[in-house]
What does this fold into?
Amino acid sequence: MSALDLAEIQNLLHQYCHAVDRGSVEDILEVFHRDAVLAPRYLGDEVHRGRDAIRAWYTDYDRKVRSTVHPMRHKISAPYIQVDGERATAVCYLDADFVSNASGEMGLATGRYEDVLVKDGGRWWIAERVIVVDHSIHLGTPGGFP
It folds into this structure.
């Protein structure tokens, strides 16, 4: 396991967060391998295989979730990454905060990402991603700086 591989994988995990928060569906797809598998476990047991299926899921996510909140800001912490050649696993916690467009209330969701990554074509990709959301809570109306 090289320090460069670890740095590239960490950057990829952060790239995903920024793409989901402010990027396009195509930006999100830039982190997924062409044969990737996505399993958003917090919505059931459905699995989405391949970029076309993942594109369809994130297009629906944009319509049902991202378009209903602003801003959305999510981040990862405590990434535990194990590299074995051109394959790696990673698990990290996620925290996402957002403000509902409809109510103006702030919310927070917590969970984790469980990933299998592959190095293909000289770069790292997410090959499998399981999204687990443990909790979601409304925090009330956000305030600003005094």
